[in-house]
Amino acid sequence: MKVLNTTLFAxxxxxxxxxxxxxxxxxxxxxxxxxxxxTKTDAWNALAKAYNYIPRxxxxxxxxxxxxxxxxxxxxxxxxxxxxxxxxxxxxxxxMTSPQLGLWSGTQGGxxxxxxxxxxxxxxxxIDRVRDMQDGEKxxxxxxxxxxxxxxxxxxxxxxxxxxIPDKMATPxxxxxxxxxxxxxxxxCFQYILNLINEAVPDLNERADANNKGQIDQIVAKAIKARxxxxxxxxxxxxxxxxxxxxxxxxxxxxxxxxxxxxxxxEALDAINEAITLAEGNGHRLYNFTRDPYSYDRSAFSVxxxxxxxxxxxxxxICDPWNEEVVWGYSNxxxxxxxxxxxxxxxxxxxGYEGVINTTAFSWQWMGASxxxxxxxxxxxxxxxxxxxxxxxxxxxxxxxxxxxGTQEYxxxxxxxxxxxxxxxxxxxxxxxxxANLGITGGYWRAHTQLIATQMFSGTAGGxxxxxxxxxxxxxxxxxxxxVHPESQSGAWQRTIKYPYPLIRMADLYxxxxxxxxxxxxxxxxxxxxxxxxxxxxGVPDVQAVWSDPSLCRNPGKHLTKEGLRDIILQERSIELAxxxxxxxxxxxxxxxxxxxxxxxxxxxxxxxxxxxxxILEDKQARRFTITDCLWPIDLNEMNTNGKLIQNPGW
Length: 651
Known about the structure:
By secondary structure, the protein is mostly helical. It contains 24 helices and 12 strands. The protein has a two-stranded antiparallel ribbon with strand order 1-3. A two-stranded antiparallel sheet has the order 2-10. Strand 7 and strand 8 form a beta hairpin. The longest helix has 26 residues. The two termini are 17 Å apart. Pfam families: SusD-like_3, SusD_RagB. Belongs to the SusD family. Keywords: Cell outer membrane, Membrane, Signal. It comes from Niabella pedocola.
């Protein structure tokens, strides 16, 4: 660890220089910690600096959300080592010489979290020096910073397994043995993090006020604690002898706990319940759109009201800023620059529409969805396409034309699909999240203050247009509009709508609760209730209703076993939290990642100019993800600096 395990001179120099750069206070030759923590303004800047180490999951090239198999970006960037870093990991290009998104040292786009932890320690050691703050306010800021330290340590455990516990801050009197530390056992790491959270929570404000949204309060802290215990109870970290039975520390003891303990799920469940109770008590709930619909959708609302309400609830849940579902959001919003997932996913406004047409600025039109993701969504019956007895999978690529405008058959499709449009059977009779989240042939894209009728064929709305850009196109022919605010336009930052990307939201907590209950005590009406909260908002039938109906379901009764319900919950999470970075970690937690993520990413032939030449499935990008990739490698420079470090297996 460069931050913790170099010479004392480098440690102190790093602290002073990093603070000087951020706070812009006095010249280097006179800067001291007393100066940095002299006034409340100084301390506020130091607090902001501590928050600045939260990973940039909003940024297309730096995000962890594109891990997994949900996304596909520009194929011509395959050889660029500094772009689409998460995709490089999924392609088997991770390296211990320069780890992609390395959080240990801050390599290849990763935040240097040990440096961030050092920043929190400096803050905690010096905040009491501030002259113009009350003791209660200092205590509350300390609690926020303790939570940040705990959160950064959890992210390190999540990515690396056993980590070095930084329980002492370096001082001029520190000995080498205090600077060069070994990795601790995973269970000890979790316990240290949880102790830090328990220490911080009582001193936090119950709820941050409107001017401090994004700061950690008790609601956020308890949700973070719930997620940490949720991971701790999961099979990857709980009795994982299969992967790590021979991964030992210097004393010959396993880093990972070898014995599976069922009661860890009960601890997770208790924490989740506590988090949900506090969040709900402060007004957090599943999001519902309550404003008037956009003018272009009024006619659809008049003939298809209930379905359109559902569509709006789902379409706006992410991009409606600071809505009631967001428990914690990433608030370090870059208002002036482009690069967010909202920009790389938004399609250009096509010719024929009013506005700034055919510009790629803030509408890159090249970060799209994989074919795998298009298949993963349910049918209208709330069942996977493989399990729905009414879904004709053998003919799902058949080209058809949607019903015409004004017909009785079209009414339930109004606002979802275009009338009289070419599409395929796979795109029909799917659940509302499919239409709210994706951009498809024959559907609609809500952006640029317009209702854009997408075809995705070459030369049509949403499709490859060589005269505009040879590189900016959706390689799979399937778009992701989940992160695009309907009012965001192209050309300049002033035309875009910014919002905090959700780090934790209520739907996640409800589905975490369902999983924890099922893992601890098996299927029950209480488990179904938690799943159904999310399903009802999504406009699909209750889980026990469809999985008990042999006329709908090919595998009736699957929800009655723990194993079957586990699969159902994980698929529910993969759909509700699609593209938000959770599916990858769910597959890691349940030791499924290596088998799921090695299949090539597939998509349609984007150069096709009509249905016959477009709807041809192709392998777009090879993927290679192994058990070794489940833990990030520690940077080789760190290994050479600190002889007490043991590298992760396989690297």
